[in-house]
Amino acid sequence: MPPRSIWNGAIALGAVTVPIKVFGATEDQQIRFREVHVPDGAPIAHKLVDPTKDDKEVDREHVVKGYEVSSGEWVEMTDDEIKAADQPKRKAIELEEFVPRDEVDPVYYDKPYNLAPQKDAEKAYAVLAEAMEKTERLGIGRVVLRSKEQLVALRATDGVIRMHTLHAADEVVDPKDLDIPKPHKKPAPKEIKMAAALVDQLAADFKPSRYKDTYRDRVLKLIDQKAKGKEIDLTPPPEPESTDDLLAALEASLKGSKKR
Predict the structure, then answer these.
(1) Which of 111, 153, 171, 227 would staple 167 via disulfide (CB 3.0–4.6 Å)?
(2) What stretch of H or E contains 189?
(3) What Cα–Cα distance (Å) separates residue 69 from each residue in 72, 74, 83?
(4) What is the mean pLDDT of the chain?
(5) How do residues 115-136 score in pLDDT, each as one tens digit?
C-alpha cells in the first residue's frame, strides 16, 4: 500500500512556488512491551498521585500544567494560553537561504520527511531538485507543522527532495564543553599509519540494506522461544578484552580484517 501524505502545501522561494505533498520518511519498528497483571492478563493503568502526601491519588481535574521559573516557584499555564504561541497554519515551506551541504553537521538533523510533487508540479519539483543537487546546497527555511513553527533543511538526492526538521543551535551541545583529556603521549606516526590502513581495509560504499536492527531480531527470537515454552539462556555475553598495547591491537585488527 502506498504511503499517505500527512500534509499538503508548497515549497516557496522568492516568487517560485512548488506544490508538494509531505510523507513520513521513517517507520517506527521498535518492540514495545505492555505492563500486564499476571493473574488475569489485564493491562495495567498508571494513576496520578501526590508524592508529598504519601502518594495519595489525585483527580485529573486538579492537575494543571506548570513551568518552574525559579526554585519552588511555578507559573500555571492553561492549554489556551499555551496555544497563544502558535503560528498561523501557513501552507508553505518558506526557504530563506541555501547553504553548502557539507557545512551542516548531522547533529542538527531531527525528523526526516519525504516530499513529492502535487499534480502538474512535477517539472518545477524536478528543476528544483536538480538545481540543489548540482550546486550541492541545502535549502534552509521554516514551516508550520501541527501549529508549531519548525526550522527545516531541504536536501535533494537522486531526484528526491527530503525535508529534515532541525535542532536549534542552543539545543546542540558544543563539543568544546566536553572534558576530553589529552593523551599523555602523542600518537606515534606508525600508530596513525596503521589506524589509517585499518580504516582503508574496512572501507565500503554505504548500502543501508546491509545494516539491520540485530537487537530487534534477537529480542523477537527470545520472545518466540519463550512463547514455545523454551528456557532462555541468561548467561551474559563475555566482556571484550582490553589492551594497553595499541600497536599490537592495531596489528591484530589488520590481520583479522585481511582474513575477512
Answers:
(1) 171
(2) helix 189-201
(3) 8, 6, 19
(4) 87
(5) 999 999 999 999 999 999 999 9
